Amino acid sequence: MSWIGLIISFIVVGLIAGAVARLLVPGKQNISIPMTILLGIIGSFVGGFLGYLIFHKDAADGFFQPAGIIGSIIGAVIVLLIWLKVGGRRSVSSR
């Protein structure tokens, strides 16, 4: 049962972090709800890694903390900005 709870936690935190990141970054992002969840999950790992580098804290200090959610949102914003920058280089040409 703990694996299912962990997966549901990843999905919920991913959805929240991805949605807030999409609200904070100006402009239109053409991504679906599953991609928003994936954005938040990847952002959570990025935020957790950056938080560990800066504050030297890890998951043993507690999984569901406000600092973890804030770190997830910051990480999701970073991932979204990188995604938009890399995705902006693609061009679609019509013949």
From TrEMBL:
Pfam families: Transgly_assoc. Keywords: Cell membrane, Membrane, Transmembrane, Transmembrane helix. The chain crosses the membrane at residues 6-25, 37-55, 67-86. It is a multi-pass membrane protein. InterPro entries: ABC_BtuC-like (IPR037294), Transgly_assoc (IPR007341). GO terms for cellular component: plasma membrane. It is found in: Cell membrane. Belongs to the UPF0410 family. This is GlsB/YeaQ/YmgE family stress response membrane protein.
